[in-house]
């Protein structure tokens, strides 16, 4: 073998043929194939993102329905029609005396219906919407009385120490509107109530489940958005023990509730762009 065969010259035709690149046609074919693959991948990703968004908004509407149903159910189950806890019946709102707190009386004023409370749970306030259900151990009955005033500094009204246990310091003092307080004294359980309305209201162009104390001018937003009242976003029906609809709040034995919620955001579907919806209808038995 000659030297020229073992080490071909750089400029020889053999070397040029072995180091040639892609032709323009090959590059164009590769680009077209790459674009086809990328378009397919991008289409799958967009489809998955839309499906994920659709599922998220469906879950959003479902959670609104479940949250609203659980909240309203809890509030109404604690109400007693015969005791007067249902104070307003409407198609889109219900007013109840909602429990705000509880405590035990540990001292009593000698002349006034004023009681020191030890370690209260929740809140006791003296607005026009507040009342107390106090237990009389002597008669074994509960008595409903309006709250006249509340003091968070017991020393200011001369009740700095509990009578039982004698070493305890009360957390607050309440005074009740004069009434039937016979038998209410040290050791009496006290439940604080506030007249509260739950209903549907509009804010920011959407409809929401709200709560407001009757002396308040506006609702506090609880959950939503809901469908408008005309589309049965929130509807109440009231039934007596015989199953007939009633407007007598003292005769209500069951409250029927329908809730229709919508997702917070719109999503694209095969039919266009719209909110996702969910609904439920249930009944709550009232204590009598």
Attribute tags:
6-stranded antiparallel β-barrel, 288 residues, Elongation Factor Tu (Ef-tu), domain 3, 22% helix, 3-stranded antiparallel sheet, 14 strands, 2 domains, 39% strand, alpha+beta
N→C terminal distance? 115 Å
Low-pLDDT regions: none
Number of helices: 3
- Major sheet: arrangement of strands: 2-3-6-5-4-7
Q: What fraction of the residues are assigned to beta strands by DSSP?
A: 35-45%
Describe what this molecule looks like in 3D.
- The structure is a single chain.
- This protein is an alpha+beta fold and 288 residues long.
- It folds into 2 domains: 56-93 and 196-285, no CATH class; 96-194, Elongation Factor Tu (Ef-tu), domain 3 (Beta Barrel), CATH 2.40.30.
- Helices cover 22% and strands 39% of the residues.
- The chain has helices at 3-6, 13-18, 24-77; strands at 86-89, 93-108, 114-122, 130-136, 141-151, 172-176, 189-203, 206-213, 220-226, 234-239, 254-262, 267-269, 272-274, 277-285.
- Strands 2-3-6-5-4-7 form a 6-stranded antiparallel beta barrel.
- The mean pLDDT is 85.
Task: Indicate the topology.
Elements: H1 3-6, H2 13-18, H3 24-77, E1 86-89, E2 93-108, E3 114-122, E4 130-136, E5 141-151, E6 172-176, E7 189-203, E8 206-213, E9 220-226, E10 234-239, E11 254-262, E12 267-269, E13 272-274, E14 277-285
């Amino acid at each position: 073998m000659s030297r020229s065969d073992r080490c071909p010259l750089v400029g020889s035709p053999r070397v040029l043929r072995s180091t040639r690149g892609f032709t323009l046609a090959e590059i164009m074919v590769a680009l077209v194939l790459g674009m086809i693959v990328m378009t397919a991948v991008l289409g799958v990703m967009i489809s998955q993102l839309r499906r994920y968004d659709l599922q998220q908004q469906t879950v959003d509407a479902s959670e609104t329905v479940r949250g609203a149903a659980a909240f309203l159910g809890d509030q109404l189950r604690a109400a007693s029609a015969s005791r007067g806890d249902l104070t307003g019946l409407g198609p889109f709102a219900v007013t109840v005396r909602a429990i705000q707190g509880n405590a035990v009386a540990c001292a009593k004023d000698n002349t006034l219906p004023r009681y020191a409370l030890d370690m209260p749970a929740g809140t006791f306030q003296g607005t026009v919407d507040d009342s107390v259900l106090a237990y009389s151990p002597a008669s074994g009955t509960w008595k409903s009385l309006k709250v006249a005033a509340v003091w968070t500094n017991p020393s200011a009204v001369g009740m700095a120490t509990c009578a039982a246990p004698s070493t305890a310091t009360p957390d607050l003092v309440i005074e009740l509107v004069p009434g039937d307080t016979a038998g209410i004294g040290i050791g009496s359980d006290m439940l604080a109530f506030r007249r509260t309305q739950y209903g549907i209201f509009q804010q920011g162009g959407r409809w929401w489940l709200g709560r407001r104390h009757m002396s308040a001018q506006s609702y506090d937003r609880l959950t939503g958005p809901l469908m408008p009242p005309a589309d049965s976003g929130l509807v109440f029906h009231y039934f007596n023990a015989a199953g007939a609809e009633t407007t007598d709040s003292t005769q209500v034995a069951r409250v029927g509730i329908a809730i229709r919620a919508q997702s917070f955001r719109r999503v694209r579907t095969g039919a266009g762009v719209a909110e996702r919806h969910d609904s439920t209808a249930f009944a709550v038995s009232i204590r009598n």
